[in-house]
Amino acid sequence: MMELEVGLILILAMVGLVLAGVPIGLGLAFLSFLGIWLIRENFDLAGRLLANAAYAAISDYLFATIPLFVLMGLLVTISGVGRDTFDVARYLLRRLRGGLGMATVGANAVFGAVTGISIASAAVFTKVAVPQMLRFGYTPRFAVGTVAGSSILGMLIPPSLLMIIYGVLAEVSIGRLFIAGIIPGLIMASAFMLMIWLMARFRPHLVQSETGMTAPLPAETAGSLATKSVPILALVLLVLGGLYSGFFTPTEAGAVGAFGALIIALLRRQLDLPRFWRILMETGYVSVGILFLLIAASMYSRMLTIAGIPVSIAEMIRDLGLGPYGFLFVYVVFIVLLGMIIDSSSILLIVTPIAVPIATGLGIDLIHFGIITVIAVEIGLLTPPFGISAFAVKATLDDRRIGVETIFAGAFPFVCVMLAVLALIAAFPGLALVLSGPA
Amino acid sequence: MSEVDTLDEAAQAAAARPPADVFGRVLWTLNAFGTLMIAAMMALIVADVVGRSFLNAPINGVAEICAKGIVAIVFLQLPAAVRSDRLTRADFLLSRWRIRAPRAAALLEVLFAAVGVFVFVVIFRAAWPQFVEALERAEFFGVQGVWTLPTWPIRGAILLGCAGAAAAALLHGIAHLLKVFRR
Predict the structure, then answer these.
(1) Within an 8 Å CB–CB cutoff, is residue A287 touching chain B?
(2) Nearest Cβ partner of A392 from B4, B16, B75?
(3) Given CB atoms, is B75 within the 8 Å cutoff of chain A?
(4) Cα separation, A298 vs A63, whole angstroms
(5) Across the interface, do A47 and B126 touch by the CB < 8 Å criterion?
(6) How far apart are CA A334 and CA A372, in angstroms?
């Protein structure tokens, strides 16, 4: 019992420290050390476990995916393919009401297949799509909300940093998780488009303040459309095709994808040596943040296991008689609440080691569970007060009149759609598992 | 909200340049070395894929080298990340306290810096004997007789990273401590 109490107190202390603003990796490492020290009453042993985790926790080919996909994402971000994708989507959807909004969603879905970070998508489309929507009379709230809302497709449609982190923590194949994200990602994108169409049809004043104003036909020819869509489609095909056929491991897909993005950026003359260096350094900063979190998370889950937390929480849940759906409901509510205050990768680190044994005990497939987890975590990107996608839009937006509250308000319909799609996917595991197969 | 800073090109450019002070320069050099390793890793994997698929000439040991290399990369880059306050944190409460109660916020920062120093010193102390042992016993990884590489550079990178990160956290703590007592 003693172990369990120490463990539970440390989880509470963790939440307190995280709220107060401790760097999350440091907080996790520190409390894991305290926990093991208190339970095993051995200072040196606790230190050795930390040092072993430092050496072994991320020493796997798999973890090389993280810097590689970050690099790929940053390279496609500067290469300007985001703008091209938007131009093509805009042309294809030109006749529909709310077409620019739907084009933003569609372009995000395609762009999501070459980037694994949502804030990258949010930044690109804030620059590309918001000015266009504002120029054609769309309301600011709708414009910024659509960009923030559809940016979450970046981490649902593979590759996805969140899936990599979940896969590592839950010990599930990352390649299969990626494949499992394809159909839910497409459903999510279609549901977003449908919602925009319905809004534009039945509540047009929420979408366009000056009705009847349609965007003039963009001057596109077959040739210009082809030049704009071929590079990104080739990259999508290379990465997803390689993964799906099993020709690439996720790490190889990351390396080849980053290399492909490098070539595209060079061909489009968007890259010189200082810029490439800047992007490489930035890749380092972003990935060291994630990888250090993963090292700390392995210390933390070690401590939890020593304290017997996962087993006893699993027993507790079983005694409550919740059943799989009851558990999923409580779990999603909990993650959405956490998502309001802490960032997405940290939620995964804190929650997954506890939740995965419970899900296994209830007979939930871990790949299906992973997709549910990723969507639930992504809702946190859009909810105040700490919604990183909304802040990313705000930071990129060159318009002081649009506040972050407007972005949260505009993204709210997207949150509702996400909850509906989440319920759909929870009810029909086949949507996630049909391509990937069970875990 | 440090993640959002990464969107700003000027901030990125500033972070990519070596800083003016000596300590900052040392950390920047370690960081730059880790950065080059990321690019090298990409090139190595692409070369392996191309060699394997088209030339029937796979490169031995790419997976193992990347697996060990990623550990070195993280620890080489950790000190610079600590120094520039780029470790992931939820600072939405803290950023409010900074405005309303700057001293209390600074005191919290001192506390967090102390946690950082403690964690990195503990890891350093426990990793030191492992490094010495790896060096003395010539611990290696790879396939014996085909290719082997020593593990001490990786273990050494962990030591270097923890020492640098502890020093960076210490400097952070001192800077914030001065803020607490400044009139």
Answers:
(1) yes
(2) B4
(3) yes
(4) 13
(5) yes
(6) 13
Q: Is A384 on the interface with B (CB under 8 A)?
A: no
Q: pLDDT tens-digit profile of A149-179? A: 999 998 899 888 899 889 988 999 988 999 9
Q: Residue A78: which residues within 8 A CB-CB, separation 6 or more? A: A265, A270, A271, A275, A279
The whole-model pTM stands at 0.86
Residues 108 through 167 of chain A touching chain B, CB cutoff 8 Å: 119, 123
Supply the pLDDT for residue A132. 86
* Per-residue pLDDT reduced to its tens digit, B72-101: 999 999 998 888 888 877 777 787 888 888
* ipTM score: 0.89
CA distance B119 to chain A (A): 6
Structure tokens at A4: 């369990």
Q: Please say if the pLDDT value at position A262 is more than 80.
A: yes
Contact A252 B45 (CB under 8 A): yes
Can you list the pairs that A237-243 forms with residues at least 24 positions away whose Cβ atoms lie under 8 Å? A239/A113, A239/A114, A239/A159, A240/A113, A240/A158, A240/A178, A240/A182, A243/A158, A243/A175, A243/A178, A243/A179
Residue to substitute from A24, A32, A55, interface B, most B β-carbons within 10 A? A55
Copy the structure tokens of residue B67.
Answer: 């697996």
Q: Using only C-alpha atoms, what is the Rg of chain A?
A: 22
